[in-house]
Amino acid sequence: MTTQNVNTPFFIGLMSGTSLDGIDGVIASFSSDAMGHNPIATLASAYVPFSAALRRELMALQQAGENEIERESLVAHTLATHCAACVERLLADTGYRANQIRAIGVHGQTIRHRPELGFTRQTNNPALLAELTGIDVIADFRSRDIAAGGQGAPLVPAFHQAVFASPAETRVVVNIGGIANISVLRPQINGAVSDADIGFDTGPGNVLMDLWVKVNQGQDYDANGIWGASGKVIPQLLKACLDEPYFALPPPKSTGRDLFHEAWLAEKLALFPQFAPADVQATLTALTASTIADAIVRYAADVSTVVVCGGGAYNAHLMQALGQALSRGGVSASVASTDTLGIAPNHVEALAFAWLAQRFDLRLPGNLPAVTGAAGPRILGALYPA
Ligand SMILES: Nc1ncnc2c1ncn2[C@@H]1O[C@H](COP(=O)(O)OP(=O)(O)OP(=O)(O)O)[C@@H](O)[C@H]1O
Ligand SMILES: CC(=O)N[C@H]1[C@@H]2OC[C@@H](O2)[C@@H](O)[C@@H]1O[C@H](C)C(=O)O
């Protein structure tokens, strides 16, 4: 066991999201100023892709199947070894030692998200990760919020609030991962969180586009949106997709692969006898763009700046479609990636889990009840000491 240095401000964040592509990791340092802001520095980042076999098994565990307890336990073990490899890479890149890291915040892999039934499941083996790394591990960030009547998601709005809010303008942060979510950040007065700061999952981000490009082109994603851009939106298919009741629900709300999966898409496509695959991709791109834009028009029409993070920020066609959908909705905000505010789009979620680990360490709440619908602020996470 290594000796933890309690004075170090360094935290590791590890995120593996609904895209099921791999683990994004960062080492971050936070220094709170007198205003309660959290100037944040990313000291290193690393990405460990999942092997095809791990990805297949994680995908399979999204739905009910045989022998789930054993399969989940085994996959959690493999996930922990991937997480440990990511930590090792971060330490090697920076030259830091394990005892210089205060804690690791690790999300785990969501395999079920059913807040309406009172549970969410991020498969994980934090005990093994603590054993392999010799660093304190904080995990299971969602279940306390659900226990308090919340959705347990999205959690990143509190982090967005801490690092991206402006005293002068309303900002919206859009995360476009597998699922897309928005954080509406009203101008901050003396660094205080406003009750008007809301956030929720808008629906599919890349998840449906990734499924479709895999089946038709054998690719994991539509690089830069080039294939989607070669097709034409099918208005009737777009309308059939937009009829999904989730989109009209008021927040608090959250979703996942539990709803937006292959069968969901197949059901919509079954309504149409013929279609060109690239046109479907164009339509799925439009679906992601228009559901995000509708959410902004409805809940943040006063927005001045929209900043996008998550892998979707690298899809130029999607970014263009989002800008156009916002204009059609009468919102004339600028649309750019979080790079413009100093944080790379693919680092934001991992940084959020480093930040959540720091919140736990300080025994401060990590949720925004106005976002998740929880009965109140709660300290999120559970500690596995090194
Ligand atoms: N260059 C690119 N062009 C187009 N799409 C891209 C590009 N790079 C990444 N993506 C998309 O981003 C996805 C990964 O995004 P990200 O890592 O933010 O998702 P996630 O964290 O797994 O999901 P979530 O935020 O829902 O938990 C990929 O699956 C792909 O669809
Ligand atoms: C249950 C779950 O894993 N939800 C994820 C998912 O991916 C994006 C969106 O859906 C968001 O609600 C959440 O992730 C981020 C990190 C969050 O909690 O804010």
TrEMBL record:
Any GO BP: peptidoglycan turnover
InterPro entries linked: Anhydro_N_Ac-Mur_kinase, ATPase_NBD
Presence of the UniProt keyword Kinase in the record: yes
Pathway: Amino-sugar metabolism; 1,6-anhydro-N-acetylmuramate degradation; Cell wall biogenesis; peptidoglycan recycling
Coiled-coil regions, chain positions: none
Binding residue positions for ATP: 17-24
Keyword Transferase attached: yes
GO terms of molecular function: ATP binding; kinase activity; phosphotransferase activity, alcohol group as acceptor
Cross-referenced Pfam families: AnmK (PF03702)
Extent of the signal sequence: none
Substrates-to-products reaction catalysed: 1,6-anhydro-N-acetyl-beta-muramate + ATP + H2O = N-acetyl-D-muramate 6-phosphate + ADP + H(+)
Keywords assigned: ATP-binding, Carbohydrate metabolism, Kinase, Nucleotide-binding, Transferase
EC number per UniProt: 2.7.1.170
HAMAP family xref list: AnhMurNAc_kinase
Alphabetized PANTHER family for the sequence: ANHYDRO-N-ACETYLMURAMIC ACID KINASE
Family: Belongs to the anhydro-N-acetylmuramic acid kinase family.
Described function: Catalyzes the specific phosphorylation of 1,6-anhydro-N-acetylmuramic acid (anhMurNAc) with the simultaneous cleavage of the 1,6-anhydro ring, generating MurNAc-6-P. Is required for the utilization of anhMurNAc either imported from the medium or derived from its own cell wall murein, and thus plays a role in cell wall recycling.
Protein name: Anhydro-N-acetylmuramic acid kinase
Annotated source species: Glaciimonas immobilis
